[in-house]
Design brief:
The chain is mainly α. It has helices spanning about 1-15, 20-35, 40-55, 60-75. Helix 3 (about 40-55) packs antiparallel against helix 4 (about 60-75). It comes from Streptomyces haneummycinicus.
Length: about 90
């Protein structure tokens, strides 16, 4: 968790310095660490940060994938109250 938090912060710092590629690298690294830790809430927030970055740089499809990843972790089986989590969309 601490390493993921560090990468998240480094990504934010890189964004502030207008270094989008470096920010993306840190966010993706943090996502990997958070997935392994099972930290769904933190992962969803990080996916939002990454999606916003990708959207600002004109990579709309990649941004949608990032948002979708974050939502997928928030709607994992057992976390919804209105029925089962939605099926994965066809690729």
């Amino acid at each position: 968790m601490h390493a993921a938090a560090a990468h998240r912060l480094l990504g934010i710092i890189a964004e502030d310095a207008r270094e989008a590629e470096r920010a993306e690298e840190h966010y993706v690294r943090a996502m990997s660490l958070l997935e392994r830790a099972g930290a769904a809430g933190d992962l969803a927030d990080l996916c939002r940060l990454l999606g916003d970055l990708l959207r600002r740089t004109g990579r709309v499809e990649a941004a949608l994938d990032a948002y979708r990843t974050g939502l997928g972790h928030r709607t994992a089986p057992g976390t919804t109250t209105l029925g089962p989590a939605p099926a994965q969309p066809p690729v």
